[in-house]
Amino acid sequence: MSDTVRLTCAQALIRYIAALRTRDDDTGELVPLFGGVFAIFGHGNVAGIGEALHAHRDSLPTYRAHNEQGMAHAAIAYAKSHMRRRMMAVTSSIGPGATNLVTAAALAHVNRLPVLLLPGDIFVSRAPDPVLQQLEDFQDGTVSVNDCFRPVSRYFDRIVAPEQLLTALPRAIRVLTDAALCGPVTLALPQDVQTQAYDYPVSFFEPREVRFRTAPPANDDVERAAEAIRAAERPVIVAGGGVLYGRASLALRDFAERHGIPVCETQAGKGALPWNHPLQLGPAGVSGSSAANALLAEADRIIAVGTRLQDFTTGSRSLFAHVPILSINVNGYDALKGEGLDIVADATLALDALSAQLDSYRAPDRWTSRSRDAGQAWRDVVDRIVDARTPPDGRLPYDGEIIGAVQRSSAASTTKDIVVCAAGTLPAELEKLWRTETPGGYHMEYGYSCMGYEIAGGLGVKMARPDREVIVMLGDGSYLMMNSEIATSVMLDAKLIIVVLDNRGYGCINRLQQACGGAPFNNLLDDCLQGPHGAPVIDFAAHARALGAIAEHVADIAGLEAAMHRARAADRTYLICIDTDPARTTDEGGTWWEVAVPEVSMRDAVHDARASYESALKARNGQVKA
């Protein structure tokens, strides 16, 4: 009996990933590690990868999409919804099909999310050079457009001989499933190598369970951290995405309750603690709550759990610039960003060990009591905003009122809804105002804040969580960036509810432009260079219907609530569009965010904005009292 099997490179790759299993956290059953492969075929992958996928279509489903970036977003969202325990692969042709994946690769890299990218590549033989869609580098004959993936991949390999899979695939899976390394993996596949055969060991394809490693904390790190916390009188926890990915929500809640320490959240960490928990302060930072930001500004110890402390969380390092930070992170690179003490470990293991070391320590009662009062005051503010049914002075509704209508339409508790968003004004409004009780009920891509992620990401979320109602909220600008996966959602019977807020342009950046002293320019459609026919009036509902969805345009908040009930009862993707005010936002909460303002300008408004900017820099740097 032979111990080898002769397969093409593509066949071996697909057979290998199809055999991998992982254990479902809810049922304990073994399930495929890869939920499927998104594919758009072209001459760089249809003959090799395409034939291999066809042979495994029953054990490893192949999903056709309409845009390479979109299908990669869907795959990334699928992994995020599974808290990185399951994932997808994505294959494209060479040239534009491959480079369309680069933005998604960067998004996955920034957000520490796994996706296996399999772009086709040029011929290793070089016999037909230059092949259709090939980029030629005049100084380096080994370069192809796939080299663009190198800086946006956690692991990159170009497979130039079929036997290289024997080392490349285990390395790739290690990166995809290691919490500290996690991110996109790119295996560039030259189209001739895809079709070449090799005698692979049969054992290479035996089904195996992939185990997700958790790093325990070092005892001396825990001891130092506990000593620092005991000395604190005003500690605050900042919970990031690592709490969710580390399945540490219960550990976080137990830690906070046992030691009386309030908790605030990042965009990625929202939902780590229920919105109505007494120690929940709400979000931190630029789009944060007044409660969280007030207590962060007075804290004498920040405990950052599973967050990379990006500028929206820290107020561009102004919010708690001079507060010592204890950073708990499975990734050593991210742990160092606190510039203080760090514990490089899994969030659950670290919190449990730290709690045991702290023993009976509790934050002073006055601090815990104050945090409870501040958190409740913020929840009262949120209630007032989202309960509003009628905009003031006959104006168009704004995001806060729309968020309230969407949440009121849920007959059950908010545990069944998952809201998906990524860019524009909505991330700030949703972070402040969306109320979720369960980890994963809030799905925001804000590491890369990529316009166009929303609908494609919603598709991936629905594929991962078919039993949940997935509500995609986005602006007209993001809709126009990428909407083609509406058709994919209809084809796959992956129902989405899509709420489009039409403020006639890029309202968020229009406001930022004016806040920096600039004149309204090239953001709202009415402020753009136009021909004699003027700016278009876009019928988003008609467009969505053309892609196979049910859709309608509503006039007001009451109409939106009624439409949401129809959408929930519908049997396929349902889009609702509503006109919104581009100027109104939630005034409550928030803090400074650094956006550089020109030193020289002909506009007085820019001079004033520059002066304010320089004052903020001095305050941040400690040159004057903040």
TrEMBL record:
PANTHER family: 3D-(3,5_4)-TRIHYDROXYCYCLOHEXANE-1,2-DIONE HYDROLASE, THIAMINE PYROPHOSPHATE ENZYMES. NCBIfam families: myo_inos_iolD (TIGR04377). This is 3D-(3,5/4)-trihydroxycyclohexane-1,2-dione hydrolase. GO terms for cellular component: acetolactate synthase complex. Residues 46-134 form the Thiamine pyrophosphate enzyme N-terminal TPP-binding domain. Belongs to the TPP enzyme family. The lineage of its organism: Bacteria, Pseudomonadati, Pseudomonadota, Gammaproteobacteria, Lysobacterales. InterPro entries: DHS-like_NAD/FAD-binding_dom, Myo_inos_IolD, THDP-binding, Thiamin_PyroP_enz_cen_dom, Thiamin_PyroP_enz_TPP-bd_dom, TPP-bd_CS, TPP_enz, TPP_enzyme_TPP-bd. Pfam families: TPP_enzyme_C, TPP_enzyme_M, TPP_enzyme_N. Residues 423-576 form the Thiamine pyrophosphate enzyme TPP-binding domain. CDD domains: TPP_IolD, TPP_PYR_POX_like. GO terms for molecular function: acetolactate synthase activity; flavin adenine dinucleotide binding; hydrolase activity, acting on acid carbon-carbon bonds, in ketonic substances; magnesium ion binding; thiamine pyrophosphate binding. Keywords: Hydrolase, Thiamine pyrophosphate. Residues 222-354 form the Thiamine pyrophosphate enzyme central domain. GO terms for biological process: inositol catabolic process; isoleucine biosynthetic process; L-valine biosynthetic process.
